[in-house]
From TrEMBL:
GO MF annotations, alphabetized: adenosylhomocysteinase activity; trialkylsulfonium hydrolase activity
Binding site for substrate: 121, 146, 176, 180
Alphabetic keyword roster: Cytoplasm, Hydrolase, NAD, One-carbon metabolism
Cofactor note text: Binds 1 NAD(+) per subunit.
Pathway assigned in UniProt: Amino-acid biosynthesis; S-adenosyl-L-methionine biosynthesis
More about this protein: SAH is a product of SAM methyltransferases and is known to be a feedback inhibitor of these enzymes. As a result of this inhibition, organisms have evolved efficient enzymes to metabolize SAH via different pathways. The pathway found in methanogens differs from the canonical pathway, it uses the deamination of S-adenosyl-L-homocysteine to form S-inosyl-L-homocysteine for the regeneration of SAM from S-adenosyl-L-homocysteine.
Pfam families: AdoHcyase, AdoHcyase_NAD
Name listed for the protein in its UniProt record: S-inosyl-L-homocysteine hydrolase
Naturally occurring in which organism (per UniProt): Methanosarcina vacuolata Z-761
Family: Belongs to the adenosylhomocysteinase family.
Amino acid sequence: MTEKELIESGNMKMDWARNHMPVLAIVRKKFEEEKPLKGMKVGMALHVEAKTAVLVETLAAGGAEVAITGCNPLSTQDDVSLALGTRKNICCFARYGVESQEYYEAIDRVLDIKPDITIDDGADLIFKLHTERTDLLPNILGGCEETTTGVHRLHAMEKEGALKMAVIAVNDAMTKYLFDNRYGTGQSAWDGINRTTNLLVAGKNVVVAGYGWCGRGVAMRASGLGANVIVTEVDPVRALEARMDGYRVMKMADAAKLGEIFVTTTGNRDILTAEHFKSMPDGAILANSGHFNVEIDMEALASLAKSTRTVRHNIKEYDIGGRRINVIAEGRLVNLAAGDGHPAEVMDMSFANQALCVRYIAENKLPNGVHKVPLELDTFVARMKLQSMGITIDELTTTQECYMSGWECGT
Ligand SMILES: NC(=O)c1ccc[n+]([C@@H]2O[C@H](COP(=O)([O-])OP(=O)(O)OC[C@H]3O[C@@H](n4cnc5c(N)ncnc54)[C@H](O)[C@@H]3O)[C@@H](O)[C@H]2O)c1
Ligand SMILES: O=c1[nH]cnc2c1ncn2[C@@H]1O[C@H](CO)[C@@H](O)[C@H]1O
Ligand SMILES: N[C@@H](CCS)C(=O)O
């Protein structure tokens, strides 16, 4: 495609996404009228695709100057990246398939604008700010973090006294993780796996590692597609929930022998290792949906392999002597590296939270540390989403409010 055609394609994807993000549209309208981000510079590292582009446009509509790059080497959509770069007050440095050096150089280019506010997905930008670019910290009003793994990193920094700025954990808003992590990942991980493999899920043994918000979505949709779902966990309560939701629960060492498709969603490392690869059935398919590519031990798999070959676009087969293991998208998050990411209606809520939190940071002086999304913003997003879906709900009567807050009434 020529550059012009790529830009057209990116614009078309953005139009489609924008038309399916009604809550973000409400926020954008207010931003256009009130310009709450006038004079602000926002530096971002997120998955650069159409829904993210609509968030970037919204911030620019609020008066901000925005610079953005990717947060994963395989999730950028180049057509959207180019289209975004044509917009006024928006610079985009993301490119698909970058090596590590270019990935981090692009983060430096974002930081070169000297941002007042940052938005991260995975905390790579904040990490650079706290290591090589500490000179920029005094200028920072605060940041937002999109994902569970990023929030974990920030809590670890805070615990060690290393966090030198305020960050809002957008991931932890109810209107984020209950929908994005669960229904978003549940649908888009399978979209990525199915479009990449073109194989049947029904009747297969699917192993889901981790029964957190992403894991329960992935297990629920696997079950809906007719799979026999096995869950692995380390948390006894979550393991119990998985069992009572109807799934088999066992150690990965046992599940590895049975699984035909494996999906990791733990946010942890070394979930699938050499020990497991050696006992998997021939033809097993491995996908990761956690943020970083550390859940499947790709180095161990590569060193076990007698040979490797590409067997289909985005699928690499590792022949480990008599059994072949297939890995989708190099073990990088499958919904974005082998698909289009979460559905627009889900990112609508996640990114409405992001835009509202950026405004909150611009208008309030927050102390250093990890902050919750203010409840009123979280509730606003839920109300606007319901409204956009044409759903109305009941309200408490005064008598009910009184009853719920009292203790006198019994049998
Ligand atoms: N692909 C996506 O679009 C997407 C969306 C949201 C979150 N994420 C990422 O997915 C990961 C999980 O997010 P979440 O919100 O579900 O987190 P979560 O904390 O709710 O769930 C993770 C679960 O994994 C379990 N776990 C940890 N180590 C394990 C091990 N060794 N074996 C088995 N289970 C283990 C934990 O006990 C926990 O229940 C994070 O990396 C997050 O950033 C990805
Ligand atoms: O399509 C998408 N566009 C932008 N971000 C996405 C999309 N799908 C999922 N995530 C975000 O990626 C994070 C993990 O890295 C998740 O927390 C989710 O919010
Ligand atoms: N489109 C941008 C420049 C890209 S770096 C602008 O005109 O502000």
